[in-house]
Each structure stands twice: as C-alpha cells, then as structure tokens.
Amino acid sequence: MGPNIEVSISCIDCVRRHTPDCADCLVSFVLGGEPDHLEMSGPDADVVALLTSQGMMPHLRYERVTSTRETSDEDSRAH
Fold first, then answer.
1. What is the H or E stretch that residue 51 is in?
2. CA-CA distance, 37 to 25, in Å (whole number)?
3. 72, 75, 76 from 9: Cα distances, Å
4. Are 52 and 26 in contact (CB under 8 A)?
5. Could you give phi then psi for residue 69, rounded to 5 degrees?
6. For every one of its 79 residues, what pLDDT tens digit does the chain have, with 9 covering 90 and above?
C-alpha cells in the first residue's frame, strides 16, 4: 500500500462475496458490480463514515474468511 492509503479491503477474502450482502455493501456501492479490492485514504474513509452514519451510503459488510472456514470449505469441496 502507498503512504496515503489508510483502508484496504480485499473482497476476495470476504465471506459475503457472491451473496446478497455483497450487493448491499459499501465496496459494491462505491465500485459497482462485484469488485475485487478497495483502497481509501484517511480523509476518504472519514467522508465515507459520515455518509454511512447519515444513511446516505450502505455500511461495510466485509468479514474476512478465517482459516477455520477456509479449511472447512476445502474439506466440503473434497467430498
């Protein structure tokens, strides 16, 4: 990340990717479609926090996949 980047979100690591929650997430709202990654500077993140607190933008729904979940997903694909 560059020196001005304060927030970096990788949608590839999100448990909500390809779900209805993804479509109602801040990242999808900002970038459109099903994005892969969002980076914001500190001032941008402050503006987003203000807009979401006033209901003008959806909230961030990101939840990182845990290693336990990754393991169980791999196990379910193997069977």
1. helix 42-53
2. 13
3. 23, 26, 26
4. yes
5. -65, -40
6. 445 768 888 999 999 998 999 989 999 988 888 788 889 998 998 999 999 999 999 999 999 998 655 444 544 554 4
